[in-house]
Design goal:
The chain is an alpha/beta fold and about 300 residues long. The chain has 2 domains: about 220 residues, P-loop containing nucleotide triphosphate hydrolases (Rossmann fold, 3-Layer(aba) Sandwich), CATH 3.40.50; about 60 residues, Alpha-Beta Plaits, CATH 3.30.70. About 35% of the residues lie in helices and about 25% in strands. It contains 11 helices and 14 strands. A 6-stranded mixed β-sheet has the order 6-7-8-3-9-10, with helices on both faces. A 4-stranded antiparallel β-sheet has the order 2-1-4-5, with helices on one face. Helix 3 packs across helix 4, helix 3 runs parallel beside helix 5 and helix 5 packs parallel to helix 6. It starts with a strand and ends in a 7-residue tail after the last helix. The structure holds adenosine-5'-triphosphate. Adenosine-5'-triphosphate binds next to strand 2 and helix 1.
Amino acid sequence: MIDVKGISKQYGDIQALDNISFHIDEGACFGLVGPNGAGKSTLMKILSGILLNFHGDMEVNDWSVSKERLKIKQRIGYVPQEICLEETLTARDNLTLFGHLYELKRKALQTRIDEVLAQIGLQDRAKDKVSTFSGGMKRRLNIGCALLHKPSIVIMDEPTVGIDPQSRNSIFSIIQELQKDGSTIIYSSHYMEEVEHLCDSIGLIDNGKLAEFGRMEDLLEKHASPSLFIAGEGIDQDFLQSFGKVERKGTGYLLNSEDSLQTLEKVAVHCREQDIHPYRLELYQPRLEDIFFHLTGTQLRDM
Ligand SMILES: Nc1ncnc2c1ncn2[C@@H]1O[C@H](COP(=O)(O)OP(=O)(O)OP(=O)(O)O)[C@@H](O)[C@H]1O
């Protein structure tokens, strides 16, 4: 169990984190979601024990990060957002270098490196220089370096930025295997679909503040009042606003009302009477992206 207790962090005048508190169950895959600059990396670095100068505390199984930082660090594997590898060395040599940082001994280290190479699917490229690797392979090796000491908590800061869909899927598989083996995962992203796909609990962060956190299914249920999506020629704000609250979404409009099913019937009748033929008229279940927008007024994309 990880307990984050009132963490705040300031860089000069910038309030990067403002009194953040949440908890993560053991074995969970926790997604930290927010737009660029929201404070995700800062929080990840504090949770990893790398960034020391902050207010508040974090407890891992009742150990406080401010008092038992080294003990906690041994249980954590941190995958930074920036690729942190030596390009002129092979994959195996990079892993050996990181293994030495974790003070793993020679024979045990080589055995562990073989296990990690299999885990990240790079056995065949172990002897190749990192400079010959694709972006996705570098990302996987970056993850491998954080797994050498068998951490029970793995913290990954936007590990899929700038890679192709195939590499992304293989990173998802690595994460799912880690979770199956009992690890707790903390995963940050500004791609909502990734988090929906991978994580069982989430924290939504915007402008240094935690807008919401909890189990994914509880959150979806809490914010899940369906609305109506309608699009077509002749359908505009004036046409719809007598039925409820209207907002533009993509090529059409979202219509929020007390009873969306009843509204759908009324809109359908009205369309027939007016000889208007929508090409889409359907109930729309909010996604995490909508919930985030509803809570913060901030879009996750194009920031
Ligand atoms: N070392 C630093 N010095 C000064 N300001 C910083 C520093 N690191 C981060 N910040 C600022 O703190 C805020 C939060 O940044 P942070 O990198 O934690 O956000 P993020 O959610 O991880 O963003 P991204 O998705 O772009 O990585 C931003 O306003 C950023 O400019």
